[in-house]
């Protein structure tokens, strides 16, 4: 690694950060050498109703598979995020809400106010018959009520399942049905970039495929017209009228479920990733404090959507558990123009910004002027998440956005991991653009070759985690077997991440991307299987194969090979129709960028589609297609190459 690619820890960070280089070494060493003591000590950062005496209790082996953390402890997650701050900082700002429309006033909630709003929402849910263990689906825009709803569930022990507001009615219905929730919380409409999203109408459409749905709570956000169905639909503001603003937090076991979040895998439909209460909150809180060197007085902005795990952990649970001021933004980084994010930074004096490489690339493309026209002197730290960050975007973030002052914290993690896993600590870790750097305390990453042999020193391989950590997911909702099958069978005894990585001679990790059939579009996970299933639902489609392709802004785009039923002719209209079809079935993020009408797909003699070849063609890398002699019909490949969609 060339020297100019190393950004040493700035002296003021080394001197003043919570953890310096020696501190990291010591903490990391202790976490692996004596995990029991280390984690029980860390558990003190939470308020327990009953303090745990056991830390991790787990086995990744088939015969005795189980994962439990702090299992004898009792706590309430919302009380940790709200009540315990009241005495000390009840009057300080907990939540700042920045509206889509920049001319509108932001809304601010102190800890005392947020506590009251959450309690009120919790009482409304109780009034609708929601009790501990029930699943509540939340399909909301980025408005404060979304935060109230999430924390209200945590308060009464209901399990929330937040569904991204950009998902279609079909996708929403599948998620409602899968977790058996009878109640959906939504809003009349959402707003993003000046456009309206018909959330309530989408819930109405979803209800047709979700027979178990009996109650819809509707928050009035825009005042747009909606049809209310008398027996089923309830206006939140009506139900909340006169409702008490105190509500006792439900005592929860540390291993009681906190939430389900659906995410894409390499096979089948999205799976409901289950997180529990104690370990998850501990991990959210610890990683937020360590990786971003959180200090009282910071204004923290995680620019994710609460429909993704990043929004769960780093808009809500982590920062609120730490008593931080967290900013929630309703809109888009590029609207009304590409200076919006930096204007928000200035308006609220944001100290720490956490966003995704795809947003940075989109903004970088618009030129530096949108950035340099703003002040940004409040910023002290910048973070990124969601996909590998290309060094060019990293440097732009560092040099232009951060004026060379702010360390870049590239955090590698997954829905399944609950919080950041591999990331620099600003006072401890010299940075290399494009590397997520080093494992956080308690995290034991390994690189394996395809046979499962552990690779030492500088190497590239499959990234696995060799021991459990508190924030680890605990199961796939409704399918206990799928959890073990998906994550613990490829390399027995280890958690398989599905990512590939390289470790350099300094021990730095460089995530190279997914090694499975998951593609990462603008930091959002899409299973190729999901897009394929949506395509083949179309009456003219016989078969489909979907792969990722490089995309300047999105990181990866979606390239779909489609074989039509005989008698159907390819046309541009049909191509448009298929793209629209996938948007409708799953949502806009799943819309293919390219549709390649293919008379045949390359298959092995046993009928397996050779995705390796399809990937190469989509990437335009046709000179090295490898061995095609095992194909049932090698001529198919020539036809695909000749008709590649560019
Ligand atoms: C938090 C989140 C997880 C997948 C993960 C990996 C990719 C996330 C990354 C990164 C390189 C980073 N990923 N952060 N790759 N560097 N800093 O994104 O969760 O939506 O479940 O996606 O995203 O491929 O496996 P999730």
TrEMBL record:
Modification after translation, per record:
Acetylated. Deacetylation by the SIR2-homolog deacetylase activates the enzyme.
Q: Where is the Acetyl-coenzyme A synthetase N-terminal domain?
A: 24-81
What cofactor does this one take?
Mg(2+)
Any GO MF annotation of the entry? acetate-CoA ligase activity
Describe the function of this protein.
Catalyzes the conversion of acetate into acetyl-CoA (AcCoA), an essential intermediate at the junction of anabolic and catabolic pathways. AcsA undergoes a two-step reaction. In the first half reaction, AcsA combines acetate with ATP to form acetyl-adenylate (AcAMP) intermediate. In the second half reaction, it can then transfer the acetyl group from AcAMP to the sulfhydryl group of CoA, forming the product AcCoA.
Keywords (alphabetical) are: Acetylation, ATP-binding, Ligase, Magnesium, Metal-binding, Nucleotide-binding
Can the keyword Oxidoreductase be found in this entry's annotation?
A: no
Modified residue N6-acetyllysine is at which positions?
608
- Positions bound to CoA: 192-195, 310, 522, 583
Sequence ranges assigned to domain AMP-binding enzyme C-terminal in this UniProt record: 530-608
Residues involved in ATP binding? 386-388, 410-415, 499, 514, 525
Question: Can you state which reaction this protein catalyses?
Answer: acetate + ATP + CoA = acetyl-CoA + AMP + diphosphate
Which GO cellular component terms are attached? cytosol
What is this protein called in UniProt? Answer: Acetyl-coenzyme A synthetase
**NCBIfam families referenced in this protein's UniProt entry, alphabetically:** Ac_CoA_lig_AcsA, PRK00174.1
* Keyword Acetylation on entry: yes
UniProt feature coiled coil, ranges: none
Give the Pfam families listed for this entry.
ACAS_N, AMP-binding, AMP-binding_C
- Please name the InterPro entries in this protein's record: Ac_CoA_lig (IPR011904), ACAS_N (IPR032387), AMP-bd_C (IPR025110), AMP-bd_C_sf (IPR045851), AMP-binding_CS (IPR020845), AMP-dep_synth/lig_dom (IPR000873), ANL_N_sf (IPR042099)
Q: Which gene encodes it?
A: acs
Q: What is its EC number?
A: 6.2.1.1
Q: Which GO terms describe its biological process?
A: acetyl-CoA biosynthetic process from acetate
Binding of Mg(2+) occurs at 536, 538, 541
Give the AMP-dependent synthetase/ligase domain ranges: 83-477
Entry similarity comment: Belongs to the ATP-dependent AMP-binding enzyme family.
Q: Which domain of life is it from?
A: Bacteria
- Report the SUPFAM superfamilies cross-referenced here: Acetyl-CoA synthetase-like
């Amino acid at each position: 690694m060339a020297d100019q690619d190393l950004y040493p820890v700035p002296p003021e960070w080394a001197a003043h950060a919570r953890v310096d280089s020696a501190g990291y070494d010591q903490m990391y060493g202790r976490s692996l050498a004596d995990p029991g003591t280390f984690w029980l000590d860390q558990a003190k950062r939470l308020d327990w109703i009953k303090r745990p005496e056991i830390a991790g209790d787990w086995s990744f082996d088939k015969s005795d598979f189980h994962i439990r953390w702090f299992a004898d402890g009792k706590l309430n997650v919302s009380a940790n995020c709200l009540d315990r701050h009241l005495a000390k900082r009840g009057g300080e700002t907990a939540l700042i809400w920045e509206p889509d429309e920049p001319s509108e006033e932001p809304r601010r909630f102190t800890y005392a106010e947020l506590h009251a709003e959450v309690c009120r929402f919790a009482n409304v849910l109780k009034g609708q018959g929601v009790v501990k263990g029930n699943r509540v689906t939340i399909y909301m825009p980025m408005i404060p009520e979304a935060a109230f709803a999430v924390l209200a569930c945590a308060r009464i022990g209901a399990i929330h399942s937040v569904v991204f507001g950009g998902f279609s009615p079909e996708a929403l219905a599948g998620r409602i049905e899968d977790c058996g929730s009878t109640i959906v919380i939504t809003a009349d409409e959402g707003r993003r970039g000046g456009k309206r999203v018909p959330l309530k109408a989408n819930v109405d459409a979803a209800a047709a495929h979700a027979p178990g749905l009996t109650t819809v709570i509707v928050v009035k956000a825009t005042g747009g017209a909606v049809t209310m169905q008398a027996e089923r639909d309830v206006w939140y503001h009506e139900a909340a009228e006169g409702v008490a603003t105190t509500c006792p937090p439900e005592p929860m076991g540390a291993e009681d479920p906190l939430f389900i979040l659906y995410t894409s895998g390499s096979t089948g439909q999205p799976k409901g990733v289950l997180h529990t209460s104690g370990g998850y909150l501990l991990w959210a809180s610890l990683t937020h404090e360590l990786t971003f060197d959180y200090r009282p007085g910071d204004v923290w902005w995680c620019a994710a959507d609460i429909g993704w795990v990043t929004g769960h952990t780093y808009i809500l649970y982590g920062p609120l558990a730490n008593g931080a001021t967290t900013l929630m933004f309703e809109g888009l980084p590029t609207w009304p123009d590409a200076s919006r994010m930096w204007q928000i930074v200035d308006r609220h004096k944001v100290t720490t910004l956490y966003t995704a490489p795809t947003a940075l690339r989109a903004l970088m493309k618009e030129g530096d002027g949108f950035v340099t026209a703003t002040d940004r002197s409040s910023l002290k730290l910048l973070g990124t998440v969601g996909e590998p960050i290309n060094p060019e975007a990293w440097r732009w973030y560092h040099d232009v956005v951060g004026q060379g002052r702010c360390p870049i914290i590239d955090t590698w993690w997954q829905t399944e991991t609950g919080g950041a896993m591999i990331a620099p600590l600003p006072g401890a870790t010299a940075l290399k653009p494009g590397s997520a750097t080093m494992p956080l305390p308690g995290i034991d990453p390994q690189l394996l070759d395809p046979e499962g042999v552990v690779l030492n020193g500088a190497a590239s391989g499959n990234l696995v985690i060799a021991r459990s950590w508190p924030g680890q997911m605990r199961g796939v909702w409704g399918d206990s077997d799928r959890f073990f099958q998906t994550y613990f069978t490829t390399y027995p005894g280890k958690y398989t991440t599905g990512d590939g990585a390289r470790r350099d001679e300094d021990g730095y990790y460089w995530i190279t991307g997914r090694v499975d059939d998951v593609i990462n579009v603008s930091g959002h996970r899409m299973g190729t299987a999901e897009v394929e299933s949506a395509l083949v639902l179309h009456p003219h489609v016989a078969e489909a194969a979907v792969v990722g392709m490089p995309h300047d802004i999105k990181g990866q785009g979606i390239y779909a090979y489609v074989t039509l039923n005989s008698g159907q002719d390819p046309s541009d209209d049909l191509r448009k129709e298929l793209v629209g079809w996938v948007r409708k079935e799953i949502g806009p993020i799943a819309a293919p960028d390219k549709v390649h009408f293919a008379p045949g797909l390359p298959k092995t003699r046993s009928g397996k589609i050779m995705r390796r070849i399809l990937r190469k063609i989509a990437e335009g890398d046709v000179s090295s297609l490898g061995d095609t002699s095992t194909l049932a019909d090698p001529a198919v490949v020539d036809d695909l190459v000749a008709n590649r969609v560019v």
